[in-house]
Design goal:
Sulfur carrier protein ThiS, ThiS/MoaD-like, Ubiquitin-like (UB roll), Mopterin_synth/thiamin_S_b, Beta-grasp_dom_sf, mainly beta, five-stranded mixed beta sheet, 5 strands, globular, 11% helix
């Protein structure tokens, strides 16, 4: 299944949850926010939130400094 992650086409296993995607991308366990189709998804919902073909995903990582 193809989705857009930060405007880059990415191939995922079908029926992937946000949590599965985050694990496969080795995202840190803290300091990350994810939006799907312009709606923020709380971390508490990542395990149940199933991604669909052509979803637009934005991953935001917190950074220290300025």
């Amino acid at each position: 299944m193809k989705v857009q992650v930060n405007n880059k086409e990415t191939e995922l296993q079908s029926q992937s949850s946000i949590k599965q995607m985050a694990l496969s991308m080795n995202l840190p366990s803290a300091g990350v926010a994810i939006a799907v189709n312009n709606k923020m998804v709380p971390r508490t919902e990542w395990d149940q939130f199933i991604l669909n073909e052509n979803d637009q995903i934005v991953i935001i990582k917190a950074a220290c400094g300025g």
